[in-house]
Amino acid sequence: MASPTSMLAEEQVHCSICLEMFTNPVSIPCGHNFCMACIGSYWKSSALFMCPMCKKTFLKQPDISINTVLREITEKFKEMKAYPVQNLQRTMQLDPGRAPEELPADLPELIPPDGPPAQGVPCDVCTEHRQRAVKSCLVCLTSYCEEHLKSHTARFTKHKLIEPVRNLEERMCKKHERLLELFCKKDQTIVCVLCTEMDHRAHYTVPVEREWTEKKALLRKTEAEVQHMIHERLKKVKDFKHSIELNKASAQREIEDSMQVFTDLIRAVQKLQAELVLDVEEKQRKTENWANDQIKELEREIDVLKMRNTELEYLAHTEDHIHFLQNFTSLMSHPHTKDWSEICVPAEQCVGTIRRAVLKLDQTLTEETDKLVELELRRIQKYSVDITFDPDTANPWLQLSEDGHQLRHLGAWQDLPDTPERFDTVVIVLGREGFSSGRRYWEVQVGEKDDWYLGVARASVNRKGRISVSTPHGYWALAMKKSQEYRVSSSPPLLLSIEPKLKRVGVYVDYEEGQVSFYDVQAKSHIYTFIDSFKEKLYPFFYLYCCDKASDTMTICPVEEKSHVKEC
Q1: Which long-range contacts link 400-405 to residues 24+ away (Cβ below 8 Å)?
Q2: What 3-state DSSP class applies to 387?
Q3: Per-residue pLDDT at 249
Q4: pLDDT tens, residue by residue, 190-244
Q5: Cα(164)–Cα(46) distance, integer angstroms
Q6: Under a CB-based contact definition with an 8 Å cutoff, are residues 482 and 492 in contact?
Q7: Integer Cα distance of 490 and 470 in angstroms
Q8: Which of 57, 268, 298, 321 has the least CB density, counted as fewest CB within 10 Å?
């Protein structure tokens, strides 16, 4: 019957850190085993709690305890290793002529032909018990232990020695069998002296040490950039968590406001009140779940970046020029990460939710609705942005002011370049600033004009020939036509009854919610809201037909967060 050690390879009871048989072996969560002292020292010398084998990283130091089964197996292995070897040596001494096939079949292979395994790189000169090498010679392509190194250095004083490494033949040119000691700048590869006379002739080459110095400086820069990326993402995680708390507080305030509103109403509205609370809480939960998903993604990117930073730190401290240059290029490119600059969690959760619920009560709720709209305006004004007209998109009949805030119909055609961005038939101009996330608000003074559109448009709208300004064609707009009718660009158009005549219109867009709302700023009233889903970038858009009054202009006004808004 085979002994247990014949079914167990020796390396299975070796610690991969000290390369010796386990002493007080412990298991970490990823399943790998190490000596308790070895893994403790490894974690103390590292900035991360990482498994040396599979490189899995733990957020905090794992709890570890001695693996008693593995310890017993290791001790039994040590005993079985010692006794058969002694018996074998005794047998060979008593009967040197005994053939190998006459030896016991269950004798484990505990000693390799070239002696016990040495820690690290073994000496190439030792014949029996191979000692651990302390230096490798780049001329002899041989690794030497401390004893053999003495005789080598005594004979060859000018040979170049480095820290012991394996596979020294990889440092030789496979074509010329010369030492790789130069770096070709043109081909970005390591070459030997003969290569510079043949394939790399007339190429600019430098010693590998000099290239190592230059690349190491670049590596430090990349390392700093990766650390900065980690810092930015950690800050973004903190911002997300803070925004979640603000979002919770906002949702709670919204619920409390709704409770106050519905307290003053008759019993018939209680069902509507309950539905509103559930809607607010559901939106808050969805926002929180989304934000937590973003945090997880950020933390995954941070783990990847930390891993890259660890690799960069290791490469930055290595003195092995060849290893450095061979791995330099692959580590210089940043891991693929998302651009988080415009992604955030909105603090205000439910703009307009209460209003839409209360309007269902029609005339009996008119007074309460007016109060809510005024509060809503104050909230969305926090998202005001400075919108300017984009001259590259303006129809040649339109004239823009130098500051890009005023627009008028010139009444004459201007000779402007017919670029793909420009509207050539319909008198439209887009805003210069587009957006594909977040919330935006701006206000437009429409004055006494009676033929205009304003709102938002998709980036891909047709800009040549006759255009239908409608939602199916990529426009979400409020319009005033010559017949003194207000309408929205739904299909078919929806007529609106608005009194008094609009002077100043507020436009609010929530990209994620798919919401485009229009407000009468002076009357502090809501006009209309589109609910849709957006798939591409949106731009503010403006349409202005010919007016008899040369001074009549459409103006983008600065938002004044006051109870009374003056005309601009």
Answers
A1: 400/429, 404/432, 405/555, 405/556, 405/557
A2: coil
A3: 87
A4: 998 889 888 898 899 999 888 988 888 889 999 999 999 999 999 999 989 988 9
A5: 23
A6: no
A7: 6
A8: 268
pLDDT score, position 350: 73
Q: Could you report how far apart the first and last alpha carbons of the chain are, in Å?
A: 100
> CA–CA separation, 260 vs 566, rounded Å?
32
179/164 Cα distance (integer angstroms): 16
Cβ atoms of 487 and 470 within 8 Å: the answer is no
> Cβ contacts of residue 506 below 8 Å, gap of 6+?
377, 380, 381, 441, 442, 443, 518, 519, 520, 521
Give the pLDDT score at 83.
54
pLDDT exceeds 80 at position 328:
yes
Nearest alpha carbon to residue 288 among 349, 343, 351: 349
- How many other C-beta atoms lie within 10 A of the C-beta of residue 196? 16
CA distances from 340 to 36, 229, 295 (A): 41, 11, 11
Residue 82, pLDDT score: 57
Contacts of 559 (CB under 8 A, 6+ apart): 381, 384, 441, 442, 443
d(CA 261, CA 253): 12
Angstrom distance (rounded) from CA 174 to CA 521: 79
Instruction: List, as one string, the DSSP characters of 147-201.
Output: HHHHHHHHH-TT--EES--S-GGGGB-TTT--B--EEETTTTEEE-TGGGGTTTT
Nearest residue to 145 (alpha-carbon basis) of 153, 110, 158, 16: 153
Q: What is the pLDDT of residue 509?
A: 96
Q: What is the DSSP string of 58-108?
A: ESSPPP--B-HHHHHHHHHHHHHHHHHHHHHHHHHHH-TT--GGGS-TT--
Q: Is the pLDDT of residue 4 over 60?
A: no
Cα 281 → chain centroid = 29
Closest Cα to residue 317, out of 133, 46, 54, 122?
46
Rounded CA separation 40/376 (Å): 58
User: DSSP secondary-structure letter at 456?
Assistant: E
Q: What is the pLDDT of residues 479-528, one digit of tens each?
A: 988 766 899 999 888 999 888 889 999 999 999 999 999 999 988 899 99
CA 417 to chain centre: 40
